[in-house]
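Take a specimen:
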Amino acid sequence: MSFTFAAASKLPKFTKALLAAFLLLILQVSGEAVPSAAAAQSEGQGQGSSLPLDSESHSLSLEVEQFRKASAVLRPLLGVLPKNEEGKLGDSAVKYALHHFFVRKFAWHVRGLDSAGQSWNQTTLLDVPILKDLPEETRSLFQERLKSGGLTEHECTVLAVTIWQLIHQKSEVQLLKTFHFFDLHTSDTLDSAKATQVVGAYMAAFVLDRDISKVVPAKMMQVLGKMDKVYPRWPGLQRIIQQEVSVEQARRGSDVLRYSSINRIRENVDERFGYWQVPECIELKDLLLSKEDHGTGRIRLADFYKAGLDGNFQFRESAEWLRELGALEEASSYSGGEPRVIIENYISGASNSIGSSPYHDSRCISECENLMETIQLRFSSPSAQPEELSSFVSTLPSRTMKAPRDLGTVQRQRLNSIAEENGGAVPLTGRLFAQWMHHSYPRECPYPHLAGSTNPHIYTKITEIRKGISSKEQMTSIAAQKPRQDAPILTAPWQPGEELPAPIQSANSEPPRFLMQLHLLLLLAVFACSAFSVAKLACRACRGRRADKVNRQPLPPGVGGLGQQHQPQLAV
């Protein structure tokens, strides 16, 4: 099938095959009838879908495999999220789960799933940009589910797979545009060099956040020739793409590859790209940690800019941009009177996006995700007792923290205070526990600001980038500032204020068994007392009726009685 650019602009937003699989999974709980996947795919082809449907890349078995993988990653998250009375997840809880799912699985930040500095209930799932491209009938189905109490864990997993597929659909559009850029058709076969060039150009457009169809070809070729200057790790990414091409050639048993194979390579590169950047992210973090302030996970803004002036193309964000990102700690008694950069907030923040699209971006993976996942797997409950939690966390090592260790009296007291504020247990998805984790692992876990105090976003336009970058003069001026000699011992701030993605029920789904038995005994006792009282009253009533019956009977002559004694005596 030949490909034209006009056809690419008419690509379906959500293929019939995927919709059929999605409805088959999500509607099985309600028993609604759905068309078969084969029939739906046939229908989609019959309507002239311009997306090259391949039996390997668009099969139901692939979606089932994705469902299995998604279930494994989501399991610890769903285990700690509070459910409502119906055992379902509300809108905000689903967003929380899906956000962390894509971060852990691919290092993707899907737009609209992250709280973006606001409270989790600020927006709804239907506001997520990628989900706006779902068919109207599917959006209506989700809306009904959310209004009727929320989504089950099964439905949440289906939604994760749906977003996963939709992102690949959007990315494939960019691949087709890349084919057109090189004047290729989807029916063409590509050798190793050409396949590497096409996938490389696709990834360059992703790293630069550019639509390749809107870039002048001559200018794009110039950019591709200088990508190692723009993106220092470009040569390493090129080698990875070449390896993926070789693996696909071996799998197909051919030196030339068709479109379906190129698209498979694109999928693999997209999904692994974030994890390939882990060494770069650690190198960047360690550079900042080498100038860390007293083990607080922070660096003076002066030292931050000094590192930028030493030749690093990072570390140039303005104080205003760092503040929006939630990476700047203002001058205060905590910071020794000097502004500081919170290292983990900066490293995993939006300004360090490695690649971007209108629907998602890749960032450095927070090392805290592994720690949180371990805790979630251990407790598998929305909340935990502070003593058990403190004891378990003290055994968890990180890249910079040894274990076992003593967390200290202050940290244990803070955990107890969180529990007291939340009915006796610590919510594992709450802001206060995230803050406690930041104090326990200041180099791995980001500091969670209060909702509404930050506004993290990615600058993509040249005017925005120029505004967000400090000038060399500004950086030099701040870098020249010497640390205060009379500064107090530095620490990290502790700010009260709990925030939860979903409310935790005041009572568990079932009361403790001994309470149920006690309630039963009390009911039996009340019933027995009531029965005894009724029986006693009945006996009294019975005796009263007998006495009344006796009093009404006529007495024999000459026999006195009570009734006769009260009769008046008449004189003769």
Summary: The longest helix spans residues 513-552.
